[in-house]
Design brief:
Number of helices: 12
Structural class: alpha/beta
Distance between the termini: 20 Å
Order of helices and strands: EHHEHEHEHEHEEEHHEEHHEHEH
CATH architecture of the largest domain: 3-Layer(aba) Sandwich
Number of strands: 12
Radius of gyration: 21 Å
Strand order of the largest sheet: 2-8-7-6-5-3-4
CATH class of the largest domain: Alpha Beta
CATH superfamily of the largest domain: Type I PLP-dependent aspartate aminotransferase-like (Major domain)
Shape: globular
Oligomer: single chain
Helix content: 25-40%
Length: 381
């Protein structure tokens, strides 16, 4: 049996998205910057997609800037905030995606920006009162950067609460929404966030395309220089077929959101109960087993076992046709452990295998039964 439970790393593309992209590649190959009919047709496709995405998020088309993905979008926002907007302090956490943490570290070294890491509660949530105290009365130009859904343990951020704290204290708010876009209803007209990011391949769209939401009048400037594409905020010829695919994927994800969320939530709940029943020594990291305080799309479980066996668990699962992640997929090939788990787990447990299982509508209960059975037999043998 083949079981794909690594949807937080990437998702299979919707067939409708593939069909739409093939159509564009065949019939709409012009450069959107060209003024002839071929270029105008491509430009229309790009702008139609932009308007559709903006409508889905409750914003204006000019606030959607297409990028190569979430990493580029995070980089642009953070770098421009420091270089061009006068930000001298960044408040973040140590369990952000590396697209944020590594960029923040670079800005600290290069520009001397003050970086403040919020303390985490034992359950992996940020300390909201500490954030409030850091912002209150501060005269330092500040940007708060916190992800809505943690990509490894699924912890949810109260975006509205953070956004209101930032507005009340004249701070900017950036949220990496890569893991939540397409999986949660997001209306940026109502959520007080200044910047957000997305990647299409996380919601059944193509890889290599994403976008930054940049609230108008923030003054953000480009960090990739060249032509005047994307309202002058991101140089480079637009990837028309990918942009159209992104728009189609987000449309379909949000159109079917209630139905798919109910189905996937049921899978997660079933999987948690199955593990508790069959592998009682297993525990769940952070809030990933809390159906209210973590995303319904993933669970992160720690499975105690002998050190000699722990190192080959992921390999064993792969041999049995099971795809999941040990830590984040963005760390593949790295010998470093998960920086997220290092922050929330005691050192005595950090050498034990923690696996992230992430779900989609394509998964079934039968597949989950198989996965639990494979793990249980591996532990017992």
């Amino acid at each position: 049996m083949k079981v794909y439970l690594d949807n937080a790393a990437t998702t299979a593309m919707y067939p409708e998205v593939i069909e739409k992209m093939i159509e564009v590649m065949k019939e709409n190959f012009g450069n959107p910057s060209s003024t002839h009919s071929f270029g105008r047709k491509a430009k229309t496709a790009v702008e139609t997609a932009r308007k559709n995405i903006a409508k889905l998020l409750g914003v204006t088309p000019g606030e959607i800037i297409f990028t190569s993905g979430g990493t580029e979008a995070d980089n642009q926002i953070l770098q421009s905030a420091v270089r061009h907007l006068g930000v001298r302090r960044i408040i973040t956490s140590k369990i952000e995606h590396h697209a944020v943490t590594h960029t923040v570290e670079s800005l600290e070294r290069e520009f001397g920006v003050e970086v403040v890491y919020l303390p985490l509660q034992a359950n992996s949530e940020i300390d909201y009162p500490v954030l409030a105290s850091l912002l209150k009365g501060s005269q330092i130009k500040t940007l708060v950067s916190l992800m809505q859904v943690n990509n490894e343990i699924g912890t949810l951020l109260d975006m509205h609460r953070v956004g209101m704290l930032c507005r009340e204290n004249n701070a900017l708010f950036h949220s990496d929404t890569v893991q939540s876009m397409g999986h949660f209803p997001l209306n940026f007209r109502e959520i007080p966030v200044d910047f957000a990011t997305a990647a299409a391949h996380k919601f059944h769209g193509p890889k290599g395309i994403g976008f930054a939401f940049v609230r108008k009048s923030t003054g953000l400037k480009p960090v990739i220089l060249g032509g005047e594409q994307e309202r002058g905020l991101r140089a480079g010829t637009e990837s028309v077929h990918n942009i159209v695919g992104l728009s189609e994927a987000l449309t379909l994800s949000l159109k079917n959101l209630n139905e798919e969320r109910a189905y996937v939530s049921d899978l997660k709940h079933y999987f948690i109960e199955k593990i508790r029943e069959e592998i009682p020594q297993a525990t769940f990291n952070g809030l990933s087993a809390d159906m209210d305080k973590s995303t319904y799309t993933l669970v992160n479980t720690l499975i105690p076992m002998e050190t000699s066996k722990a190192g080959i668990l992921l390999f064993h699962l792969d041999l049995n046709g099971i795809a999941c992640s040990k830590g984040s997929a963005c760390q593949s090939g790295s010998q470093n452990g998960s920086h997220v788990l290092a922050e929330i787990l005691p050192k005595s447990l950090q050498n034990q295998p923690s696996l992230r299982f992430s779900f989609s509508k394509t998964n079934t209960r039968e597949e989950l039964d198989y996965v639990v059975d494979v793990i249980k037999k591996f532990i017992e043998n």
